[in-house]
C-alpha cells in the first residue's frame, strides 16, 4: 500500500523547522511533563534526602522515568499518531515526518526516536553527556538531532 506524501521531503533549510521553534516546542513539552512528574516524585519520596546530598535510589529513578515516558505518550499519543506532533510542536507549528515526508509510524520511527531521546539520559555516569551530544547535533547543516538521524525523521514546518 502506498502512503500519501503529506509534505515535501525535508531536504532544504526552508522546510526544516528552525532550531528556535524546536527548542520552544521541547520546553513546552517539558513544562507539561514537569507538572505531572514533579508531584509524583514528591509524593513517592524522590526529594527526600536532597538537602543532605542523597540521591534517590536507582529503582525510584527507574520508576519515575518509566512513569514519565508513559505519561508523555498518553498525553501526546493522539497528536503524534494523527499529525506527527506533540503539544509543544503543535503550538509552534512544526511536526515530525520521515525523510520522504510521510507521517512516521510508531514502531519504525517514533519508538526509535523517543527511545533514543529518553533513554540516553538514563545511562549511568555518561547519560547527561550523551543527551547533550544528541541535542548538539542540531547545529549541523540539516538541523536534525541525533535521535532524528537514528529514527530517519526530521522536524518540519507545517
Task: Give a verbal description of the structure.
The protein is mainly alpha-helical. It has one domain (19-157). Helices cover 55% and strands 6% of the residues. It is built from six helices and two strands. The chain has a two-stranded antiparallel sheet with strand order 1-2. α1 crosses α2. The longest helix is centred in the middle third of the chain and has 26 residues, at 58-83. It starts with 18 loop residues before the first helix and ends with a strand.
List the helices and strands and how they pair.
Elements: H1 19-43, H2 58-83, H3 87-92, E1 94-98, H4 106-119, H5 127-136, H6 146-151, E2 153-157
Antiparallel strand pairs: 1-2
Radius of gyration: 17 Å
Distance between the termini: 25 Å
Provide the succession of SSEs. Answer: HHHEHHHE
Q: Round the mean pLDDT to the nearest integer and report it.
A: 85
What is the overall silhouette? Answer: globular
How does the helix and strand content classify structurally?
Answer: mainly alpha
State the share of residues found in helices, binned by percent: 55-70%
**Count of the domains:** 1
Major sheet strand order: 1-2
Q: Main beta sheet: strand number and arrangement?
A: 2 strands, antiparallel
Tally of extended strands?
A: 2
Low-confidence parts, pLDDT < 50 over ≥5 residues?
1-7
Q: DSSP strand (E) fraction? A: 5-15%
Compute the number of helices.
6
